[in-house]
Amino acid sequence: MKLENLNIIIADDHPLFRNALRQALSSAFEKTEWVEADSAEALQKVLDTQEAQFDLILLDHTNAWFSWLFDLDTPKNTLP
Length: 80
Description:
Strand content: 15-25%
Number of helices: 4
Helix content: 40-55%
CATH topology: Rossmann fold
CATH superfamily: Response regulator
Radius of gyration: 12 Å
């Protein structure tokens, strides 16, 4: 099954992991717009400034900035 025309955010502080995750998923998600965020601030900026609706946000929930700078209510309140 191919999923197409999606907008996906990868939020993780490790650039190699973001790149590897995008490469691993690219074959299943064709014609996908990938957006990356390396911090909670960067993710919030993407959510605030991006005009596209996002279909999926992949978060590194074990990251220190996730636990105290960002919570799951933020994207829920930002993107209905």
